[in-house]
Fold this protein.
Amino acid sequence: MNVEATSYPLPKKRSYPWPQVLHTWILNRYLISELLPPLSMGLFLFSMALMLISIRDVLDVILLSGAPLLPILKTLLCLFPPLLTVSLPIGCLLASMMVYGRLAEDRELTAMRAAGVSTMTLVIPSLFLGVCLTGLNLLWTSNVTPRALEIMKQARWEIVQKMTSISWLKPGQFTALQDDLAFYFTGASPGTNTIHDITIFKSSVSAGPSFFGDGGTSQEAANWTVSAPTASLNPDPSKGILKIILQNCISENLSPEKLSRVLVQEATISIDIGGRLAKMLSTFSREQKTWSDFRAEAEEARKRYEDLRFHLGFPEGTPHAEVVAEARRWMPIEEKTPGSCPLAGGMYDLHSVRASLDNYQVNTNRAQLRLAYPVATFLFMMIGTGLGLLTGRGNRTVSILITVGVLLFYYSVQKMAEGFSENLAMTRFFDPGYTVWAPNLILFLLGLVLLAVVSRH
């Protein structure tokens, strides 16, 4: 019996891509999980530092205002969203340097490369995380920050209106009531708002008469003092005002050439606590407007300048320096002969020529910075990754020092770019705000160079 051998074709060799994909996914997850803890730490530390710097002058007023705890907490918590825009890029820079520097220092990157993992494969997780955080930062700046500022403004007035305590005035300590007034008293009657042995020092002579004297325009140190045996503290929460009512006070000028002593039966000093609190927070909140708000203010300033330029007789496209010089030429003439200049507002409009140029450029630059800061999140992550791989140092102290150096470089270039942009607006033409993107462009080019150098090693 013959059995014929039957040959069957061998099956084709099958490829299994899933293990490689799985290994890459595990590696990416590992690197991202390593980045998140130092990122959170840096974000918290830098946000706290920026918050303390921003509100160091108003913190004592808030905490000692006697207001309920809820509006105080709302005010403090609402400071974090605006600061997150700036602190997130810093946290990304610190985290990427620490993680990739530690991996290089512990020879983990060497082991990964020996296993066939390329350098760019190791870099991709940090760049991907940087892109995601950049998008989050843009959305945060556009939506969360404006809402936080509105809540902070409401909480601020809740603090003022519910202010029932005067504990921020302490006996035996000098308290700055205003820019030029220092307040001092020795003690208070328990259970009352009556204080004893009050002395108020005036550090400069302001214009206009007051019970400190006739006043003047000199800002030099003065020798005026007001003292009283007793005074009553009368807070007005509805207006956010604290009234200090002095009884039988004595106003003295201790200057040898103007020695005087005046007895005043009753005098009242009103301290605008609400205005003081609003002034302290105004600079912080003013710089945290949205892109559209800054653009609207810039456009209003541009229209104002164009109207003034037209009435001064200059055609469109005239260098701004010529228009400003013409406005300055009219100022002494208008001062001597009011109504002689071609602008209806007189001196006010003449001063507004330069002010409108400055307002346009400042608001335009701030609008661009609303976008430049979030975009810097990705750039700082890229720079930190390259520096960490090159230095091979994951030490926290070294990473913080390098972070500080990069920040100083970034903000120095930014300030120079803003100065150049504003000078350009004052002399020739308006800058659309592209100049303030110079630090981002430099960081991007530097990041490309660092990654190119890293990929060759």
Remarks:
- The chain has three domains: 18-161, 175-236+239-280, 282-456.
- Residues 205-221 have pLDDT under 50 and may be disordered.
